[in-house]
Amino acid sequence: MSQENVEIVKAAYDASNREDWDAFFKDVARGFEVDLSRAVGPWRGVFGLDQARRVLGEFNETWESARLEPHEFIEAGDLVVVPGTLRVKGRGGIEVVSRGAYVWAIRNGAIERVTLYQERQDALEDLGLSEQDAHAE
Q1: Domain-embedded: residue 134
Q2: Which of 68, 103, 65 is nearest to 84 (CA)?
Q3: Number of folded domains in the chain?
Q4: Predicted confidence band at 56 (pLDDT cuts at 50, 70, 90)?
Q5: Rounded CA gap, 30 and 47, in Å?
Q6: Predicted structure pTM score
């Protein structure tokens, strides 16, 4: 199941980078949540499906372009940890680069929760994983 979970997450990243929100949300569970409680910025909190659609739409409307670049996909049972880089370009041409890690919880082929961490190590520690436990795809 772990490889299937990684493929679901990869497809979500691809959809996000195309701004194809229907494709992004096609594999979410009924009780889907995005946990941005550790985020820095105006979109902070835990958001259900309808709120997550709104927040992602507002975020993308703020920028001329936005791209998520995953560095690796770490399988951990029903979880996939994805450290990566977010590159955004403002309407005035200013570019911003931010690094973080997302933890995707997937059960029975449906994305239940996506949680943002500021650091890869924080995500792994919160899940009780060590660097040795982390298997990258």
Answers
A1: no
A2: 68
A3: 1
A4: confident
A5: 13
A6: 0.88
